[in-house]
Amino acid sequence: MKGRKGWVYAGLLATSVLVLQGCGGGNNTPGNSGTSGGDSDTNTNAGTETVTLKVWGDLGNQAVLESAYNEINAAFEEQHSDIKLQYDFAQNDQSLSVALQANELPDLFIVQGDKTPKMAEMVRNGFLMPLDDYNLDLSRFTESEIAYGTVEGKLYSSLPAFLDTQLVYYNKDIFADNGIEMPGTWDEFVAALDTLKAAGITPISLAGKQEWDRAWPVYALAAAHASPQLQAIAEGAGDLTAPEIGQAFQYYRDFADNGYFGKDFLAQDTAAAQFAFTNGKAAMIIDGTWNNSTYEDSGLNLGRFSVPNAEGKRIVAPSYSNFMTYAVSADAEHPDQAVKYIEFLNGQEAQQILENHAGLIPTISDIEPKNEAVSELANFDEAGGNIYSLLSTLATADTNTPDIMMKDLNPKLLTSKITGEEAAQTLHEAANYEK
């Protein structure tokens, strides 16, 4: 760890080098992808008690994860005949908040590690069970991956094995039909946007209604254009008034003002934005690497690139994937069996299953990339600043800087109510640089 608490810039930068070397070549309804059952029954084959663990999956990413967790959970139950999994895609921000308030957490649920302050808050309030007494084998993981699941020196979650970032998915056929090549510089990117707009094609499909999905361009633009400034803040040597940060926000507003998101993007949810792209109504979509399989399976002639800056350097906003990072509730009825699931998720077998289904960027060398397309996801020059993670380190009890950006400033930028400089100034005034 370096600089402010929760900032993993240095560790992720080292990880990105390994990734590049190794990879060179929600509107869903809750479902059940495991075996359901009561709290316990009798395992007649083994002659021992069988316990049931209640596990929550990521509701918002059910479409991406369901087939993978069907296989992961089946493999786990095959190895542990005395454990059944009641695995439901039931977790989102709202359901987790309700469960925490009512103290009715499932046995295992997803946490986001040190990407946000939430896991540490749950630890401080006694909701999570520490895992240190179980002496888990962490030898496959780096220090920064272990730090992800650690709070005040104790481990509380299974560990990440994949890297997330945001990039541009594009329709190669639309590009070719309009004489556009994959842009190598920022000016070439903007020229491509103008060419597509002039041809009557929506350049970028955006889910303007969705708090998180409308923010992915901000992550990508901030990383591409203001990474040195974000890193300086993380190291205590700068602040959010740096002109480059305001300019990154201004580019986001300019994309909306110039019609690059189309006409009706403010009324568009995630499903509609993805549908517009996969059905050829838009040439590009800026989205996370975690949705790679969604676009890969669409049948598009698909390409991928990270946003280039003025010099043509591709700097991205990295974070560890939380697709496999689970914690055990402090009130779990069967903690020893719950830890068995943690151990399984930490292992190569489960991680390879997820890779085979989702095609993510692995950070551990013994996970084989799904196909050569994964190398496009990892085709960046540098792991740079993640603006959300940084803002999380600058938050106070009274001023939640990440929420200010996500809930207030981004909508105002998209509707031309503020400038990029004003957005950066607002965040600066709310930030606590003294941590």
TrEMBL record:
Positions of the UniProt region annotated as Disordered: 27-46
A UniProt-annotated Pfam family: SBP_bac_1
Signal sequence extent: 1-21
Compositionally skewed regions (Low complexity) per UniProt: 29-45
UniProt xrefs under Gene3D superfamilies: Periplasmic binding protein-like II
Keywords assigned by UniProt, alphabetized: Signal, Transport
Family, as annotated: Belongs to the bacterial solute-binding protein 1 family.
Protein name in the entry: Extracellular solute-binding protein
Species for this entry: Paenibacillus sabuli
